[in-house]
Amino acid sequence: MPPSLDPVKPVKCTYKDCSASFDTLKAMKSHKKHSDEHDYCYKCDEDFDSYDDLAQHKAFRPDNHGKACRVCGEEYKSTSGLRRHIELNHKIDQKLVCIGCNSEFYRASLLTEHLEFNHCPKIPAIEFQGHIVHKYLISELLKGGSALNRFQQKISRYDAAIDDDENEGGVELNFVDPEEDADVVREVNFKAIEPEIPQESLNLPQHPGPYPPLPSTRKVSVASEISSNLGRMSISGASDAIVPSTPGRKTETPSVTHPNKPWGSGRTSSVLFPGAKSTQTPSEFSIKCHDDEMALTYGINIMNTRFWDPYSVDWNPERFLDTVTQKYSCPFTCEQTFDIPNDLNRHILENHRITRMKCPSCLKYFKSCTALMCHCESRGSKCQINKADDYSLFLDKLTGGFLAVEEKTRPDFLHNPTVKVSNPDTGRIEPYKPPVASYLQYSVTKPADWKEPPQTVSVGGTPDDQVETVQKPKPLW
Ligand SMILES: [Zn+2]
Ligand SMILES: [Zn+2]
Ligand SMILES: [Zn+2]
Ligand SMILES: [Zn+2]
Ligand SMILES: [Zn+2]
Ligand SMILES: [Zn+2]
């Protein structure tokens, strides 16, 4: 029975574009109240042009509408009830861009899934996990006390050996003394304006002298492991480049001069990824890390080096070789030792990987980082993890430094004027500001131990061309 077909009655609907008419005012109001076409406030008898306007109106009239959601107009008795409703029903989409492949995600859990389940073409899952384990290990070591001391002991023999070594080049100079570190920082700053050094002149990560005995072969086995396991990264050419089967390479090493001490990790990646230009990104960040690290670890650059990870370019089992007992110590807090690096590698990969994760608030276990991230993002759950004061610290650990979070006022609540309303209890006109809702804004960050993927090379030519250039051994005589 569409009203428009009825004959005109004395009371016309107050909406201009509506032709309905009624016998009584009450019938007309009832029509407006129940019509989906009309945004009418029955309690206040006011017409609104849009649903948004009606919702806004309700939010600013606590006398008639209690605590009303200004997004949808739903009314609540308490501010907490209203906040909960907004959190559950009016989620704000995130804008999270993967630092590897630039894909965009609107939930933190979706980005996490992308990284954790190997969906990213640039950041392999194994690397993502590595960043998480790294965070975990660093926090264990930096708790202070015995863990760090023990760690220092484990590496002290190697450290001492490096200091004795006449040639200070090579790849494993993440362990530097404070004075050298000052140089490193200057160098990093300076690098941005330095002319590009021809890749061939950057040398190989080999120890020219008799000590330590095995590093070059170790390096090779690790590198080939990396290339086979991280097949998606285009480092196959690079791993060829460090195979020490080219006899000339070894003789080349001593001739290399080191005008400055190389920033160890940067050098590592330049060797493993010779096609890649050094990127500026680490510089700014490393300086901050550097400061933290100086204060906390007396010069050991553990913050931005995945020194413990057999999948990382930073990995060097020799660092954990006790030259007296000839055994390799596990870099983690377990006290296991191994006769050969391969056993140490296997031990780390088997025993120090993440298999499940626990929510520190409700103590539930989750099968994946993604599942725990979903748990964190769902504000409807009883768990209050995402409301904890140190949630951002937890998130940093959970995602291995890929995500940060900040509590912000919802954009649709930024404009929150004060209105005058009559207080039903006192009958007086009082100023009123509707409650403001906040939301958690996630943002993408770079892990402290992040190395730019090698494919950011910007010189001309196809990637294939570059690999070829890299693979050509430079004649040395
Ligand atoms: Zn109408
Ligand atoms: Zn109203
Ligand atoms: Zn609502
Ligand atoms: Zn990606
Ligand atoms: Zn271990
Ligand atoms: Zn929980």
Automatic annotation (TrEMBL):
Q: Where is the signal peptide?
A: none
What subcellular compartments does it reside in? Answer: Nucleus
GO molecular function annotation: zinc ion binding
Q: Where is this region: Disordered?
A: 238-269, 449-477
> InterPro entries given for it?
ZnF_C2H2-type_TF, Znf_C2H2_type
UniProt-listed PROSITE patterns: ZINC_FINGER_C2H2_1, ZINC_FINGER_C2H2_2
| GO cellular component annotations of the record | nucleus
Instruction: Kindly give the PANTHER family that the UniProt entry links to this protein.
Output: TRANSCRIPTIONAL REPRESSOR CTCFL-RELATED
Tell me the protein's name: C2H2-type domain-containing protein
